[in-house]
């Protein structure tokens, strides 16, 4: 039986859904104002693993993962410019152009990582009415106040009736010292109050009418409103990165309790964070390596490109509640491990059965299930697969035999656990990724030939290459160091 670690109770619990056979699951998705990086890959892969495993167990899963496209301010508190609006202003685009552009790119990256799309992907900007209604419910219950057109959660009042901070293990005094006084907080009663609705400043380009002001919802509101809209006032699982535990998820709990008089979420699950060469990801370290940069290998911290499957495998090699540190060496090791697994899988498909088995296949299926049931212990599943790779290689090398029944079982378990549940494309589908590298290499080679032709003043050849590539749909830009291209 599946056990998962519930952040709320700080222990593993047997998973029992509210409605038999059905699971409602909500995961906080990206704020789409930039390309996805490793910090986006980990929750996406973690909850993809859970989604896949729940479906394997026979549940009908409604998986909701939102797109944040309004209300997420720069400083995560209630101050600063809206992240999307700022990008739109800097790029002179319509905010929804920014949203669409980065949503498309996010989908592309997730598809490369073999992350299944969620059942519903609601946008915050498409649920303003639901969010206003949710704020109104909190107002009606007396846990919010209006100040200068903005609506704030009255955390002190709320904390008298409900335990505030229980998810992240904080108390109000801790929170007071954390939420230092920022500009504009004078309209709040207390620094720990958070915005449910913000009145838009005149320069703010994304705003909607509401009973309180022309404005926009507070960042935490969208997940309460959309989670309960699509999954019901109470639902099974809410996931996200550990960094969202406070204030985001803590605020979500407060919003639900205040509006609905009960907690919406039964199991809170959080994946741990990713560090890069031992450092937190941050602007000051210049270590925000986007997924696209990983796939292409074009970031100064990367010694080579890494395929999407290598990234996926690397993340799954650690338990989701452990930290993961990315380094070139660790990724090279993951690449080798994945290659060994792929080789074993492909050999497994080729070997022939004999009358009896001389190799031991053990109870691989039970051991894999046991590991997954133990709070999604993917590294243990992977180690079981490596164990069985030894038996496969023995048979492949002609040093052992395998029976028809054992071979069938082994093929089924590998297909189920490695491919369907871990989502590793061991059947050559990831060669499409390797194909990408080859194709990029070929375009680079052609453009280098063109560069050489230009240096030799061979304008004929230079133009021929450029025209041929342009005709195929490439955009080529000459730069002072050489060239840039895109398709
Ligand atoms: Zn959220």
Number of strands: 15
Gross geometry: flat
Helix content: 40-55%
Structural class: alpha/beta
Euclidean distance between termini CA atoms: 48 Å
CATH architectural group of the largest domain: 3-Layer(aba) Sandwich
User: Could you say how many structural domains there are in total?
Assistant: 3
Mean pLDDT: 92
By CATH, the topology of the largest domain is: Rossmann fold
Strand order of the largest sheet: 4-3-9-10
Radius of gyration using CA atoms only? 26 Å
CATH superfamily of the largest domain: HUPs
Low-confidence stretches: none
For the record, the CATH class of the largest domain is Alpha Beta
Attached small molecules: zinc ion
Largest sheet: 4 strands, parallel
Q: Care to describe what's here?
A:
The protein is an alpha/beta fold and 487 residues long. The chain folds into three domains: 19-271, HUPs (Rossmann fold); 276-421, Isoleucyl-tRNA Synthetase, Domain 1 (Orthogonal Bundle); 440-486, no CATH class. The chain is built from 16 helices and 15 strands. It has helices spanning 38-56, 83-91, 95-112, 128-140, 155-161, 172-178, 221-231, 245-260, 291-296, 308-316, 328-350, 364-373, 378-396, 404-421, 431-455, 459-471, and strands at 3-6, 11-14, 22-27, 60-65, 144-147, 150-153, 195-199, 215-217, 235-241, 265-271, 274-276, 279-280, 324-326, 475-479, 482-486. The strands form five sheets. The chain has a four-stranded parallel sheet with strand order 4-3-9-10, sandwiched between helices. The protein has a four-stranded antiparallel sheet with strand order 5-6-7-8, with helices on one face. Strands 12-11-13 form a three-stranded mixed sheet. The longest helix has 25 residues, at 431-455. It is flat. The chain starts with a strand and ends with a strand. The mean pLDDT is 92. Zinc ion (ZN) binds next to loops. Zinc ion is lined by residues 28, 223, 248.
């Amino acid at each position: 039986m599946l056990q998962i670690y519930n952040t709320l109770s700080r222990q593993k619990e047997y998973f029992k859904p509210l409605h038999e056979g059905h699971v409602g699951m909500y995961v906080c998705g990206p704020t789409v104002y930039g390309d996805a990086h490793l910090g986006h890959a980990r929750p996406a892969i973690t909850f993809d693993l859970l989604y896949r495993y729940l479906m394997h167990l026979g549940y009908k899963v409604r998986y909701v993962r939102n797109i944040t496209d309004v209300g997420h301010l720069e400083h995560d508190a209630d101050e600063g410019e809206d992240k999307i609006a700022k990008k739109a202003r800097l790029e002179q685009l319509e905010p929804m152009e920014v949203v669409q552009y980065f949503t498309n790119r996010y989908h592309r990256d997730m598809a490369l990582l073999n992350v299944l799309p969620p059942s519903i992907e609601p946008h915050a900007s498409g649920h303003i009415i639901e969010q206003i209604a949710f704020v109104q419910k909190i107002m009606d219950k007396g846990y919010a106040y209006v100040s200068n057109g903005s609506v704030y959660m009255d955390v002190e009042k709320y904390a008298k009736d409900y335990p505030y901070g229980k998810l992240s293990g904080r108390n109000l005094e801790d929170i007071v010292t954390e939420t230092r006084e920022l500009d504009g907080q004078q309209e709040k009663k207390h620094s720990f109050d958070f915005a449910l609705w913000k009145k838009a400043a005149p320069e703010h380009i994304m705003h909607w009418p509401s009973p309180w002001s022309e404005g926009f919802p507070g960042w935490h509101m969208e997940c309460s409103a959309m989670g309960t809209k699509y999954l019901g006032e109470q639902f099974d699982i809410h996931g996200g990165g550990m960094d969202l535990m406070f204030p985001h998820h803590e605020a979500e709990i407060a919003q639900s309790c205040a509006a609905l008089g009960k907690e919406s979420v039964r199991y809170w699950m959080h994946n741990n964070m990713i560090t890069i060469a031992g450092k937190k990801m941050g602007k000051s370290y210049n270590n925000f390596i986007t997924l696209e940069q990983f796939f292409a290998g074009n970031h100064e911290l990367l010694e080579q490109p890494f395929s999407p499957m290598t990234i996926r495998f690397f993340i799954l090699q650690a338990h989701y509640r452990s930290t993961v540190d990315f380094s070139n060496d660790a990724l090279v090791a993951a690449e080798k491990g994945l290659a060994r697994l792929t080789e074993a899988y492909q050999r497994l498909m080729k070997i022939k059965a004999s009358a009896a088995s001389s190799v031991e296949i053990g109870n691989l299926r039970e051991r894999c299930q046991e590991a997954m049931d133990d709070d999604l212990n993917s590294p243990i599943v992977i180690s079981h697969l490596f164990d069985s790779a030894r038996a496969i290689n023995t048979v492949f090398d002609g040093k052992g035999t395998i029976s028809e029944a054992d071979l069938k079982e082994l093929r089924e378990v590998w297909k189920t656990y490695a491919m369907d549940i871990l989502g590793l494309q061991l059947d050559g589908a990831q060669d499409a990724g390797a194909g990408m590298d080859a194709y990029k290499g070929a375009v680079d080679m052609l453009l280098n030939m063109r560069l050489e032709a230009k240096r030799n003043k061979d304008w004929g050849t230079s133009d021929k290459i450029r025209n041929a590539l342009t005709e195929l749909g490439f955009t080529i830009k000459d730069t002072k160091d050489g060239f840039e291209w895109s398709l």
